[in-house]
Design a protein that fits this description.
The protein has 372 residues and is mainly alpha-helical. It contains 16 helices and two strands.
């Protein structure tokens, strides 16, 4: 096994042990605290999804919240239909309030849980694929990609707000049923639910690690450094960019589905510009070059927000902006860059005494042999 990959596996295993064993024990297996930390894990998951496209291929997606919100609404649609089975026509209550006469055709497939789970991954990925075909086949890069993805986010949010009869409008989807899978009920305050969220995060990170360490990951990093040179070697740059962009969107949609299970409602605020920019900040704080570091950044920043928002209220958003500026200026590679630089420095210093001793042996062979 390659040493660097073996090291990554050990670090990921340590992280898994912390969130699977250490955190529940530290929180005394309290239902409310477990639910709160499960929310942090889902937000860490969407941050690591952004790290796949931004850190690996250099694609800054400012509209990451769009695919996250789509996944959230897809899961919420299934749970809303389940909660509305006893209502006239099986229609959600808000449709009756807005004079919708029958269940829209695009809602009907979400009666099926398998369809919902697949759609929560494929629909965000498909929309990302359409954007990718437009952007990357046209060789649009850099800040223009960021602007296009941000505009897409705003357009998606406006659609969900304006189409109140089909999406719940500004109020979103509330009054959801609990998810049931093979007799297991997803109680958001139970230990089993927390383990399910943690397991999904670990699985997503392992998928990301497999991509990063594969040949495709190597090509994506080369594209990040110099896309034109990669084209000269005969690789289809747009295809690789589309691959990582769609995978990032699918994982974000997955995180959105889990987020609805944690909070038990879906809201258009999940697709807001401020939320999407916050995802970028979480990723930058942790370090976009590592999916694990990005996930940790998302978890840590949201933990900090949860502790300080009660004190500073709205002022916390200003603090978040200041934190991002500090990270960009002082730690452009985030916590991951700080840790790796520190590890290299320690390794270099520990190697210096050995090198000095070897040099002494070479330059003073007589003294080392006892003067003979």
């Amino acid at each position: 096994m390659i040493p660097s990959f073996r090291y990554d596996i050990l670090v990921y295993a340590a992280f898994g042990a912390v969130i699977l064993i250490g955190i529940p024990a530290m929180l005394n297996f309290d239902g409310y605290e477990l639910n709160t930390f499960a929310r942090y894990l889902t937000l860490g998951m969407v941050a690591m999804a952004l790290a796949l496209s931004w850190g690996t291929a250099g694609i800054l997606n400012l509209g990451q919240a769009a695919t996250f919100g789509l996944g959230a609404y897809i899961m919420a649609m299934h749970l809303k239909l389940k909660a509305s089975e006893s209502l006239p026509g099986g229609m959600p209550d808000f449709m009756s309030w807005t004079n919708v006469e029958s269940l829209p055709w695009f809602w009907a497939p979400f009666h099926s849980l398998p369809f919902t789970l697949v759609a929560g991954l494929l629909i965000p990925a498909a929309l990302a694929g359409l954007m990718a075909a437009f952007m990357f086949r046209g060789r649009i890069t850099g800040v223009f990609v960021a602007i296009i993805t941000l505009a897409f986010l705003v357009a998606i949010q406006l659609v969900f707000i304006e189409e109140q009869g089909y999406t719940g409008g500004q109020n979103g989807l509330t009054g959801l049923a609990q998810l049931e899978v093979l007799g297991w009920v997803a109680d958001p305050y139970s230990l089993s639910f927390y383990y399910m969220i943690a397991g999904c995060l670990i699985t997503a990170m392992l998928l990301g690690l497999m991509l990063v360490k594969s040949k495709a990951g190597l090509i994506l990093r080369a594209i990040r450094e110099d896309a034109q040179r990669v084209r000269f070697f005969g690789y289809d740059v747009a295809r690789y960019e589309t691959l990582v962009f769609c995978l990032s969107a699918a994982i974000a949609g997955w995180a959105g589905m889990l987020y609805v299970l944690v909070l038990e409602f879906a809201s258009p605020t999940y697709m807001s510009v401020s939320f999407s920019l916050a995802i970028v900040i979480w990723c930058a704080v942790g370090g976009r070059e590592s999916v694990l570091a990005a996930a940790i950044g998302g978890i840590l920043v949201n933990m900090l927000e949860g502790r300080l928002s009660d004190v500073f209220v709205e002022g916390w958003f200003l603090m978040l902006g200041i934190l991002f500026i500090v990270v960009v200026l002082v730690m452009p590679r985030g916590l991951h860059g700080l840790v790796t630089s520190g590890a290299k420095l320690l390794k270099r210093r520990s190697a210096q005494p050995v090198s000095a001793a070897n040099k002494s042996i070479v330059t003073n062979p007589v003294s080392q042999s006892g003067g003979h």
